[in-house]
Specification:
Elements (H helix, E strand, L loop, with lengths): L1 E8 L1 H4 L7 H8 L5 E9 L3 H14 L4 E5 L10 H8 L2 E2 L2 H11 L12 E4 L2 E6 L3 H11 L3 H9 L14
Parallel strand pairs: 1-2, 1-3, 3-6
Antiparallel strand pairs: 4-5, 5-6
Helix pairs in contact: 2-6, 3-4, 5-6
């Protein structure tokens, strides 16, 4: 099982002015035979709080995967990518590149996403959009590759890029 956390970053959601629909939509999109959501939290768009929560989920909870949603746009308070970059040790640029590339086939607004992905210790962190539809669409583009990447990150899988045992 891939131990997963979902972190919704929304001022209105945190203040209970809006019901978080994105976090539950992400949870629903995950195959329950592969992903176990162990942590779900809604926090405001505050750089220090986002950093603290990501560090806690990585270092204390030792989750395998954290899926954030919200705070990846152009608004002044959209600081999720910056907070993520502050806490990760290595970036995983192919993940947000793939999400943007596939999303551009659906909407030109995809180029406005500032989402990032990276690794802290043995935890993969991926930023997703704040809308339920956008988050689930973007997640669907990368889900097929995640189990293999997380196995490698955890040291439980091989590193064959093609998945057929042939590294040629």
């Amino acid at each position: 099982m891939i131990r997963t956390g979902i972190l919704t970053i929304s001022d209105k959601g945190y203040r209970k002015e809006r019901i978080d629909k994105t976090g539950p939509a992400i949870k629903e999109a995950l195959d329950k035979d592969i992903y176990e959501v162990e942590c779900y939290k809604v926090i405001p768009d505050e750089m220090d709080l986002i950093c603290q929560e990501l560090i806690r989920m990585c270092d204390e909870e030792k989750l395998d995967l954290i899926l954030t949603n919200g705070g990846t746009g152009f608004a002044e308070r959209d600081v999720t990518p910056e907070a993520t970059l502050k806490v990760v040790h290595r970036q995983a640029p192919g993940i947000p590149e793939a999400m943007r590339q596939m999303s551009l086939q659906i909407t030109p607004k995809a180029m406005l996403s500032r989402a990032v992905a990276g690794i802290r210790n043995r935890t993969l962190i991926i930023n997703l959009p704040g809308s339920p539809r956008g988050a689930v669409e973007n997640l669907s583009f990368v889900l097929p590759a995640l189990p293999h990447g997380i196995e490698i990150l955890k040291g439980t899988g091989g590193e064959c890029a093609r998945g057929d045992g042939n590294n040629d």
